[in-house]
Write a structure and sequence with these properties.
Keywords: ATP-binding, Cell inner membrane, Cell membrane, Kinase, Membrane, Nucleotide-binding, Phosphoprotein, Transferase, Transmembrane, Transmembrane helix, Two-component regulatory system
Protein name: histidine kinase
Number of helices: 12
Shape: rod-shaped
Strand order of the largest sheet: 1-5-4-3-2
Pfam family, one: HATPase_c
Subcellular location: Cell inner membrane
Catalytic activity: ATP + protein L-histidine = ADP + protein N-phospho-L-histidine
Strand content: 15-25%
Helix content: 40-55%
Length: 434
């Protein structure tokens, strides 16, 4: 039997599931105890007390006294039963009790079973019981204390049970919260590191949680060392590569002739390709996250493209506020995406959507787009989709989308490719969680 349908009703958070695990057995135990208590106490005890009271009533009826003398008899006074004579037409026609009087149902059934001559039984409240009998020429109403057929304060056990169950649940919750807090701290630190932020963390809690926390800190330290070493290496490589290129450009500028223009173009292409390789290797790690207004950042990028004559428009922007971003990395990703859009299309449009949970920067163009079957391949480094994106229009090396994807992942986000409904070309969504 499958219980997958229960998943939609289960809590998502660790605290919610822990509380469910804590409360489920407690509630189940309370229900079982309540059912057993009702069956054994309400039913068993009430029936036993009703049998005793019915025997006393039967003794009074079997005394052989006239109906007018039963109430004044010594036997009735000793058994504390009040007897009153009534006209036959004043007797009720059926039993009555309050709808929520659970023990009253057992009292009525037992009296009717043990006293065949009983005409009617009335349980008006928790104080008295009225029994009605039809004699030969008159009727009788016997009245006695309700406590003789029902236990007094039968709800006390249930009250105590619910009170102490709630008390122990609260105590267990505070203890459980102290055990879960180190796990939530570890999850928060891991999520922040996945988004490129460094959060202070130290292992605490149980042995297993401490071991996981120590492993996370060691992993984070190794990754940070690798990032630092890569940054230093890239700085050296950038300097070593740019120096001979600068010398070549300087030497070519001193030469004359038609051949030098082609050589200068080759050197410019070489410099651009090296910059793309370095951007891909550098990713988004050269800056630290800081509060950034994404709408203002995107607006400045669009203005820069418009200033150089590119057909780029700023579309609908929704939501306000700041997001923890690496401005340099996000700028590089958006510039690469807009550059691809205007290279393979005639115009591009950029929009920004901010919600409580995510930031989405969308770039749309009117170019040929990318078929759905090739979109996953397009996000890989050095991918060249000649048929889809008409690569002969540019001299790229297939790193634009890969750089944007790497930057999105460094922010804990992703890059989604689709088809633009507005412009008919490619639609790229840079999605970053908040």
């Amino acid at each position: 039997m499958s219980f997958r349908w229960l998943k939609r009703y289960m809590p998502r958070s660790l605290y919610g599931r822990a509380i469910a695990i804590l409360l489920l057995p407690v509630i189940t135990l309370m229900l079982v105890v309540s059912i057993v208590f009702v069956q054994r106490h309400f039913e068993g005890v009430t029936k036993q007390m009703t049998r005793t009271a019915s025997r006393e009533v039967q003794v009074v009826l079997d005394a052989g006294l006239p109906a007018s003398e039963i109430g004044d008899s010594r036997l009735a006074r000793t058994l504390r039963i009040s007897v009153e004579a009534l006209p036959l037409d004043a007797l009720p026609s059926g039993d009555s009790r309050r709808w929520y009087d659970f023990t009253g149902n057992y009292v009525i059934s037992e009296f009717n079973r043990l006293l065949p001559m009983l005409q009617a039984l009335d349980l008006p409240d928790d104080q008295v019981v009225h029994l009605y009998f039809a004699m030969e020429d008159t009727g009788l109403r016997m009245t006695f204390d309700r406590r003789r057929v029902s236990a007094s304060n039968p709800h006390q056990l249930l009250v105590y049970m619910f009170f102490f169950a709630a008390l122990m649940t609260v105590i267990a919750y505070f203890y459980l919260r102290n055990q879960l807090r180190p796990i939530t701290r570890l999850a928060y630190a891991a999520e922040a590191f996945g988004r490129g932020r460094h959060v202070e963390y130290w292992p605490s809690g149980s042995t297993e949680v401490r071991a996981a926390g120590a492993a996370f800190m060691a992993m984070r330290a190794r990754i940070e060392r690798q990032i630092e070493q890569r940054t230093l290496m890239l700085s050296g490589v950038s300097h070593d590569l740019r120096t001979p290129i600068t010398r070549l450009k300087l030497a070519l500028s001193m030469l004359e002739g038609e051949d030098t223009k082609a050589m200068e173009q080759d050197v410019a292409d070489m410099e651009r390709l090296i910059n793309e390789f370095l951007d891909f290797a550098r990713g988004a790690q050269e800056t630290t996250p800081e509060p950034t207004d994404p709408q203002a950042l995107v607006a400045r990028i669009v203005e820069e493209f418009q200033r150089v004559g590119k057909a780029v428009a700023l579309g609908h922007c929704e939501g306000q506020g700041e997001v923890m971003l690496r401005p340099g990395g996000v700028r590089r990703a958006v510039e690469n995406l807009i550059g691809n859009a205007v290279r393979y299309g005639t115009r591009a449009e950029v929009s920004v959507l901010m919600t409580d949970r995510a930031l989405r920067i969308r770039i749309e163009d009117d170019g040929p787009g990318i078929p759905q079957a090739q979109r996953e391949q397009a996000l890989k480094p050095f991918a060249r989709l000649d048929e889809a994106r008409n690569q002969n229009l540019g001299t790229g090396v297939g790193l634009g989308l890969a750089i944007a994807m790497d930057i999105a992942r460094a922010h804990g986000g992703t890059l989604r490719l689709g088809e633009s409904e507005r412009l008919g070309g490619l639609q790229v969504d840079l999605v970053i969680g908040r």
